[in-house]
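Quick one: co-fold with FE2/S2 (inorganic) cluster.
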Amino acid sequence: MELEISRQDKEKYEKLDLVINKYKQQEGMLIRILQKAQQIFGHLPIEVQSYVSDKLDIPISTVNGVVSFYSLFSEEPQGKYTINVCMGTACYVKGSQEILKTIEEELHIREGETTLDKLFTIKVARCIGACGLAPVITINDKVYGRLSPLDIPGILHSYIKTNKKSAIGEEVKV
Ligand code: FES
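Sure, here it is.
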């Protein structure tokens, strides 16, 4: 069992190396790399932050500062799918509270919590820059806009269905 876990970890770090090599010369690369690292590991524990810090030759305090500042990053394990409900002004006036309430009711958890099956985590976000599509949610990288509460069950169900079909772990495009 231990062997299996360490092999999986090794594969994740190899994937992270590919990400780092691809993005390290680009502007704003730290956030991009941390986003990808979070997709690969599911969250950003201090070991992963330290690895990124070493590879990029950036102080760990800087990396941790970015992870702590942005709500899209989490140091704790998250569900496979993180739902971010935008609570920025444009989304708020278009009913994002009702969207959040519906998601909470459908999944039987509150904002900040993860479902028992570790499939979904609900978070709220400030403006995610897609105000023209308000109200907006994101599920991992995917954006859903102009939502009504009636859309929510179908969207959530599509992830539940996909998860049943797919093998363990999500393919992360580097
Ligand atoms: S306020 Fe929600 S995307 Fe801007």
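If it helps, The first strand starts at residue 81 and ends at 86.
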